[in-house]
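Is this the right way to post structure tokens for a design question? Let me know if I should format differently. Anyway, here goes:
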């Protein structure tokens, strides 16, 4: 597969690192489709290279970026100047996809916090030109009860000092049943455990808003969640699916942890997504 890198400045003038993986040009002139991938809290887009290898092997391209305050992008770690700037990343990636291949179908795929972002984008924003949305382990509600004191503190401080930083309270042991994945995650210097009041309260409010406003879904939607996810709530994802009308598919992966694409069943999970995409082309 071919790898490309590019960047832009977001509305807060923070440089955003972006990258893409493309099928071998010798095998096909253009991809069958382009997947825009939005990563989770505290991680970065390069952790999805194996996902890109799977999809490029099947003729699809992936475009992704490190969110503000994450990975190789600029900004204070874990901070987004205004939460709604997360949607600018999707717009920029979609523009890049259209610039390169204007007639190729585009799908939006988000994981964890990224899953919450793509669901909110689907419900609240204009999204012309997308063929479908995939959300894995979406952050609609945490699977654990956040500290009431820290939540209160974050809400009080957010308007005054949005850069106020806390630990994100995520337990790396809960991301995957594969201990090698957990070990690699903890050793990866581009990962971090920071989150600011603007980011934390923004993503929690966004999840609640999606649960409260969901009704008819205007695009095909695939929801995936592990039944043993200890980071984001599979029960909240089930509630979302029950309230949603339209072309909505839900798959609860029995025994699955938070990162289904990094769990022992990852090839089955990726193939499930691939087969769903083929149905929507």
């Amino acid at each position: 597969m071919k790898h490309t890198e590019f960047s832009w400045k977001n509305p807060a003038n923070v440089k955003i690192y972006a990258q893409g993986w493309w099928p071998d040009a010798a095998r096909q002139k253009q991809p069958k489709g382009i997947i825009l991938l939005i990563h989770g809290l505290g991680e970065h887009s390069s952790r999805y290279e194996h996902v890109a290898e799977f999809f490029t092997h099947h003729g699809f391209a992936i475009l992704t970026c490190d969110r503000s305050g994450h990975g190789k992008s600029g900004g204070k770690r874990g901070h987004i100047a205004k939460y709604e700037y997360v949607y600018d990343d999707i717009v920029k990636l979609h523009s890049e996809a259209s610039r390169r291949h204007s007639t190729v179908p585009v799908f939006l795929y988000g994981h964890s916090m990224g899953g919450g972002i793509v669901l909110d984008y689907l419900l609240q924003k204009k999204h012309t030109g997308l063929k479908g949305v995939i959300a894995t382990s979406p952050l609609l509600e945490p699977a654990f009860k956040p500290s009431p004191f820290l939540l209160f503190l974050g809400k009080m401080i957010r308007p005054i000092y949005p850069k106020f930083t806390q630990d994100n309270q995520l337990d790396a042991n809960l991301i995957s049943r594969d201990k090698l994945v957990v070990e690699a995650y903890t050793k990866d210097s581009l990962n971090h455990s920071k989150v600011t009041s603007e980011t934390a309260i923004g993503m929690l409010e966004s999840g609640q808003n999606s649960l409260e406003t969901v009704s008819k879904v205007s695009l095909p939607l695939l929801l995936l969640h592990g039944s043993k996810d200890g980071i984001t709530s599979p029960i909240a994802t089930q509630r979302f699916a029950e309230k949603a009308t339209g072309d909505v598919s839900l798959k609860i992966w029995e025994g699955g942890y938070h990162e289904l694409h990094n769990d022992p069943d990852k090839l089955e999970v990726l193939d499930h997504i691939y087969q769903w995409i083929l149905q929507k082309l």
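Format looks fine. Someone answered above. Worth noting: The beta strands are 2-9, 15-22, 33-38, 60-65, 106-111, 130-136, 165-167, 194-196, 221-226, 248-253. The chain has a mean pLDDT of 93.
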